[in-house]
Specification:
143 residues; two-stranded antiparallel sheet
């Protein structure tokens, strides 16, 4: 049994000369099984990552909605009762800081999602990249 990346196994199989059709089909089935395993692992990892990203995004959106509501409350309070300009400025600056923090969280979720797209587009290549990085995880092939 030889541990290899899927791409390396596919290359060996493509360059193999003099093997019977029966053996070629058996080896191709091994490659297909490894591809399915890599796809399942990538999908599982991405499902977990997407759930985590969605939770962060939801928190950031809740924060942005809260800031919006607090801005509206500050304006309403300033219009309905006397509030010092120093108090208004302090609260306004605090709300702006919260808004910037929530906007940064949204940006981080967008950056995290940018990683997910290519993995979902080609989960086999992602699996192979992991196999190359961590050779002990490479699938074993009989050829």
């Amino acid at each position: 049994m030889a541990p290899r990346t899927i791409a390396a196994a596919r290359a060996v199989l493509d360059q193999a000369a003099g093997i019977s059709d029966n053996d070629r089909r058996a080896y191709a089935a091994e490659v297909t099984a490894a591809e399915h395993q890599a796809t399942a692992a990538a999908e599982s990892l991405m499902d977990e990552r997407v759930q985590g990203i969605a939770a962060l995004r939801d928190d950031a959106l809740r924060d942005l909605c809260s800031v919006r509501d607090d801005f509206a409350a500050l304006v309403a309070e300033a219009n309905s009762s006397p509030i010092s300009s120093a108090e208004y400025a302090r609260r306004f600056n605090e709300l702006q800081a919260r808004q910037r923090q929530a906007a940064r969280a949204i940006t981080r979720t967008e950056e995290a999602l940018a990683f997910v797209g290519p993995v979902e587009d080609d989960p086999i290549a992602y699996g192979d990249a992991l196999y190359a990085k961590f050779p002990l995880t490479q699938p074993n092939f009989s050829f």
